[in-house]
Amino acid sequence: MWWSKSVLMAGMLVLGLAGCGFEPMYAKHGAQTSAVADELAGIRVAGIEDRQGQILRNALVSRLNPLGEPARQTHTLEVVLNPSQENMAERSDGKASLGRMLINASFRLVAVDKKASSYSGSSRSIVSYRLLGPTYGSTAVERDAETRALTDLAEDIRAQIATYFANGKIQRKVDP
Questions:
Q1: Considering the entire predicted model, what is its pTM?
Q2: Strand 75-90 and strand 43-45: pairing?
Q3: For residue 128, what are the β-bridge partners?
Q4: pLDDT tens by residue, 14-23
Q5: What are the extents of the domains in the chain?
Q6: pLDDT tens column, 74-125
Q7: Sign for the pseudo-dihedral over CA of 31, 35, 37, 39
Q8: Does domain 33-167 correspond to CATH entry 3.30.390.10?
Q9: Are 141 and 130 in contact (CB under 8 A)?
Q10: Is the dihedral angle over the CA atoms 61, 63, 68, 69 positive or is it negative?
């Protein structure tokens, strides 16, 4: 009998969410794409300095515009990175054995038609990594940590912008 109560509670939860107007941010209705996905697809990511900037830009482009550059550009995303690294632990011979990479990103979403900032925000990623003895091993580990941190930043920036659009910043199209 305990399972019947569980089924009943799950049903009440689903009905409660449907009744309060809950709708997933990326929900599709019929053959349409979601309004948030349409807005994200109209964002062009401006160039970002240095190698880390290139990696972040590529990650953002693949998350915002998986089908390529926007056909109808509505916004430009400008990002500035501020990376730093530090050694956190030392071995008995005095060499670092544990490192930490911190990358701060501040970004600005600029509407193309207004040339003014629509939304701005910041994101941070902290990644720890173990330094290996040989130079090549340490370099490979640092590059992997860098890629993980930049992927984290791309996901967070995308989520912040999607939330901005989902919270009513989109002019909803009404079909007749």
A1: 0.74
A2: parallel
A3: 100
A4: 666 665 655 5
A5: 33-167
A6: 999 999 999 988 876 666 666 667 888 999 999 999 998 877 678 899 999 9
A7: positive
A8: no
A9: yes
A10: negative
First-to-last C-alpha distance (Å) of the chain: 49
CB 160 within 8 A of CB 153: no
Query: In sequence order, which residues have a C-beta less than 8 Å from that of residue 138 and are 6 or more positions away?
Result: 131, 132
Give all strands of the β-sheet with 43-45 in edge-to-edge order.
Answer: 43-45, 75-90, 96-111, 117-130
Contacts with 129 (C-beta within 8 Å, 6 or more apart), sequence order: 98, 99, 100, 101, 141, 142, 144, 145
Side chain identity at residue 141, one-letter code: V
* Residue 52: closest CA among 88, 79, 86: 79
User: Residues 40, 76: contact at Cβ < 8 Å?
Assistant: no
In 3D space, the residue among 78, 70, 66 whose CA is nearest the CA of residue 121 turns out to be 78
